[in-house]
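JOB MANIFEST
job_type = single_chain_structure
chain_count = 1
residues = 318
[input]
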Amino acid sequence: MNGLGTDTATISRRIRACDYMTVAQIFLQDNFLLNRPLEPTHIKPRLLGHWGTCHGINVTYAYLQDFYAKDPNFSFVLGPGHGFPALQANLFYDGELEKVDPKATRNLSGLKYICRQFSWPDGFPSHASPITPGVISEGGELGYALAIAYGAALGRPKKTVAVLIGDGELETATAVGSLNLVKLLGGSGNGHVIPILHLNGYKISGPTIYGRKSPRELGELFRGFGYTPIFVNQAEDFPAALQKSVNHPFIIYKNQKGATGPRRFDGQKIAGNYLSHQVPLKNAKTDARELQSLSDWLESYRFAGLFDEEKGFHDRPY
């Protein structure tokens, strides 16, 4: 068995911290620890990002990092690359970003840096880029991640590649065609690929096709391609799913779109709806009610209990 076997509570604190940093990167240019009431001047003048997929990325990455922490041949490929602030939050949390960018120190100075520079001229793009540690998939153009994962495992028998695929992304022809690559990777000379479908039910303007299929339909679809489907209906099920010894696993992780974000605003459903796909509360800088809702959202993560201004994260098991 791989992994550190970290307790669920510790992993949950990591996810909470990364969720907070994800939101902070999208919205904040000041007051990063909420030491004082949130004001319009603390909000970036231009808000860009894709929040809806980010909590699921943070959950997936946290459990994969724990399970494969002792495996030097493990790699992660992010399909929904527009959810990059989540991946960057994790790279910052683990200290990987600091290795390539000395300004990304794991303290308040580094937190200010990644938040201010996210989606900013000469800063960090809103998706993976050549400056991202270990990057092999840009992710901005959806559909290629699964093919890239298979390519990374080809001819490398010790390699394990987990690839997260958005359910909207899986509607692209490239992603669907790449499902056939499982037939080409058999044999002892190649590594292993673990596709993970992030089934949150919505894309930019409406529901996804896969989000409207029954579990039986989804299972039969992936079995037809040659995979063994494994359903993960809550985050805590990830370790058991990763431990299963099956032929060509295909994990289906069902997660609410925009989970942990605003549930409703102005009578409209946000979490669990396509309205969480990009930036909820996009008028937070100019609308007092949206600003208050953003403040409540950020406060819900209780980040002050997870992070010290000088020493950084209180609890870093990795």
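[summary]
Strands lie at 74-78, 160-166, 192-199, 228-232, 249-254, 264-265, 268-269, 307-308, 312-313.
The two ends are 17 Å apart (CA to CA).
exit_status = 0
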